[in-house]
Amino acid sequence: MALRIGISYAPQSGPYPRYIEATQSAAARLGLDVEVIDLCARPEEAARIDGVIFTGGGDVAPARFGKADEANRCEGIKLARDDHEFRLCDIACARELPILGICRGEQVLNVHFGGTLITHIATASDHVKRDDGEDAQHEITTVAGSIVAQLASAGRAAVNSSHHQAVDRLGAPFVVTARASDGTIEAYEWAEPDGKPFFLAVQWHPERMNQSDALAGPIFEQFLKAVAGSRSYA
To answer: Which of 226, 231, 224, 230 lies closest to 33 in space, CA to CA?
Structure first.
């Protein structure tokens, strides 16, 4: 029986097919049968998926985290997408699904759990795309014992970057597990993971990196292993 992986928002244009490709590639490396579902096109499938990936995109409406007066610092707000993804957060949490959040997805999840965002980081020029349209590159430092530290065994790793916002106050259930040199929160996980489903939220875009890099393809593999090992498949 195929694992059913929901993608929160994955239209068949722009950068979004990369999320599906990265998931399918990781599944092939693991020998897993996976069906990937765009939950924006098929929201009713949220009741039947086995795990969910929250994807990147425009900014979350700042009114959701108490900074409505900073809306002029935001870009690409889509209220309908916010509504859809916050409902999906409710479903995923109620069903105790394994969750992977990427870039905007990391930010959505933090806000859902009571955290806030920096609407425009002071070092944004170091994190947005380069003038040639390619992702910026920088190193992160991981926290020992975390999922990302296990993948980046040296404690440091290079990642890509394409964002101007970042996590500000972290939601109460989480702990920071990676930072950039400027202090930007690059990853967080459960503070107390025992008895909880897999959860990893990252600020970079592993789907757009070389899938052999430590914090690219292996992230999707860890997520899929957790889905395959969840109660539904025990």
So the answer is: 224
Q: How far apart are CA 178 and CA 148, in angstroms?
A: 8
Pairing state between β 99-102 and 199-202? parallel
Query: Any idea which residue has 């979350």 for tokens?
Result: 60
Please spell the DSSP secondary structure of 10-76, one letter per residue: --SSTTTHHHHHHHHHHHHHHT--EEEEETTT-GGGGGT-SEEEE---SPPPGGGGT-GGGGGG---
Dihedral of CA 21/23/24/30: which sign? positive
SS3 for 96?
coil
**Residue 224 buriedness (CB in 10 A; 0-12 / 13-18 / 19+):** buried
Query: How deeply is 195 buried, as exposed, middle or buried, from its count of CB atoms within 10 A (0-12, 13-18, 19+)?
Result: exposed
34 and 3 in contact (C-beta within 8 Å)? yes
Q: Give me the domains of the chain, ranges plus CATH numbers.
A: 3-233 (3.40.50.880)
**Torsion on CA atoms 215, 225, 3, 193, rounded to nearest 10:** -90
Please identify every residue annotated as catalytic. Answer: 103, 205, 207
The pLDDT tens digits along the chain (234 residues) read 899 999 999 988 878 999 999 999 999 999 999 999 999 999 999 999 999 999 999 999 999 999 999 999 999 999 999 999 999 999 999 999 999 999 999 999 999 999 999 999 999 988 888 888 889 899 999 999 999 999 998 899 999 999 999 999 999 999 999 999 999 999 999 999 999 999 999 999 999 999 999 999 999 999 999 999 984 443
Token reading at 78: 């889509």
